[in-house]
Design brief:
Blueprint (H helix, E strand, L loop, with lengths): L10 H15 L11 H8 L3 H14 L2 E4 L3 E4 L3 H25 L4 H13 L2
Antiparallel strand pairs: 1-2
Helix pairs in contact: 1-3, 1-4, 2-3
């Protein structure tokens, strides 16, 4: 997931969301060392302090941990990663369903659309 940052919400929150998605999707697998704060900040085009704040939020959630003198590592707790992945999926589904309701689709129509889409793959 690229760093698509917008000015309407705090940057550190958006950074934490991208990093969370990278962990949940397996782009940063369990137990792997993630890039340094400076490397991540340079890649995202943000101040290292802002990236540090995002990583601290992930530490508080248990998704990453800091190891003295060796960097930060993704948790090895596969259950936590799976729960995070499921939560992200539920949030996306809720937003999608709300948009479809705004377009006038009911649950049956939406289910039919999803089934048709699944069959066309």
């Amino acid at each position: 997931m690229p760093w698509k940052l917008q000015s309407d919400r705090p940057i550190w929150v958006q950074l934490a969301e991208v990093l969370t998605q990278r962990i949940a999707s397996g782009q940063y697998p369990a137990g792997i060392r993630i890039p340094s704060v400076r490397d991540l900040a340079a890649d995202a085009g943000v101040n290292p302090n802002t990236m540090q704040r995002a990583l601290t939020a992930l530490e508080e959630r248990g998704l990453v941990s800091a190891q003295r003198n060796t960097g930060r590592f993704v948790t090895e707790d596969e259950v936590l990663i799976a729960e995070t992945r499921k939560t992200l999926a539920q949030e996306e589904l809720s937003a999608f369903c709300e948009k479809m309701r705004q377009l006038g689709f009911d649950a049956n129509e939406l289910a039919q659309l999803l089934q048709t889409k699944g069959e066309s793959k």
